[in-house]
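Dear Dr. K.,

Following up on our conversation at the group meeting, I've run the structure prediction for Putative Outer membrane efflux protein from Nitrospira defluvii. I'm pasting the input sequence below exactly as I used it, so you can double-check it against your construct before we proceed with anything downstream. Let me know if the numbering doesn't match what you have in your notebook.
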Amino acid sequence: MRRLWRLCLLAQVCSIFIVQPWTPGSAAEPPPGPPELRLSLHEAIQAAIDNNANVRLLKERIVAAQSAASTSLGALLPNVSGFMSGSNQTVNLAAFGFPPDRLSGLGLQRPVTEPFDVYNARASLVQNIFSLSLIQRWRAAKTGVDVAGFEAEVTKRDVMATAGLLYMEASRAEAAVKARLADLELSQQLLKLAQDRKQAGVATGLDVTREEVQLENTRQRLLVAQNDHESAKLNLIRALGIDFNVTVTLTDELTLATVESQTPETALSVARENRAELKAQLTRQKLASLSLSSVTSERIPSLSLNGDYGWIGLKPDEALATRSVGLMLSVPIFDGGQREGRISESRSRVRQELIRMKDVSDQVTLEVRNALLTLDSSTQQVAVAEKGLSLAMKELTFARDRFAAGLATNIEITNAQTSVARARDNLIEALFRFNASRINLARAKGEIEQLF
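The predicted structure tokens came back this morning:
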């Protein structure tokens, strides 16, 4: 019985741990993860240019402006049309001034004729020979294409700068996560040190508890940093116009680059030459002036040519060729004051564009000077932050040695930990400000393409 009992128990164990042979499709394959996209700063900028909705909308606006210019040009070119018609009709001759006695003399018993067929095939031509208003309107439409082009360039550069800044923000958030991981590793090491010192009888439970609190605080900050990192990447994905299901991995980090010093006067000179906003505003002024000229030119007489040629007859084989050619001189005299109202409105638009030109110029000056100030300040901040981090690490080393030697409690260590975390944050923020100010300065000078 004892042997039989052992055999039954062995059979149950084997039935539990036996491995079934694997066959294809016997187990569900793990679902594939989201695709990974490794992005450098340059690649992020290119993706933003290609996919951003605002850039694509401005490209369509250029197409619309070109179509409007073609429409204005069509008014200056020959307009040719043709038609063919065939009809069966009757005519009331009395309606054309034929009295009844004359109709009877023509052998007609009633004023309405018998039904008859009319076939007509004709081509007509209208050509504006001279119209200064139409010429100026066409020039204004061509200038509108230039305005749309400059506005598209402004939007493109803004998108490049925005994408660059969002990339830097994501890099800052990633650096913050790495800093918190380093803080967490340091806290774990210091907690083990406190526990070892307590076991050796040279530290108290308060020292261990203090390090445990510090460790949990670091974990909390790590969670916040990870959330900020993911949120920053989502903002970057939105600006780039790519799929949100893609896992973005940044390949560039926050670094300190060499920047040539420059005076505000030099930077402003470059900005006035390169900024698309200034060129766009100058073109808008030209557009407003041409629109005003187009309206005022309506006072000038215009000359056009009208003509038609075709065949007409009662039967198609009996149709005869006929034509008409004429010149029409149109002289505006009075339109109830409508023209003067449009002239006054156009003059107001010219003055508005002059006011905007001053505002755009002042905005460019402000952006250049602010970018230069921020760049200079952030460069100094990076140097100070690097030194501060070095000193904080030295303070932490001294505090750890004093605690390990039993010369002090770990209050000095926790204070030094806080100083190290703050110094790391200061360095990350200083590097972010430096790189962001480089982007802002390049955009303010109109050299954003050269930076990337």
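Two things stood out to me. The chain has one domain: 36-94+130-300+338-451. The first strand starts at residue 36 and ends at 39.

Best regards,
J.T.
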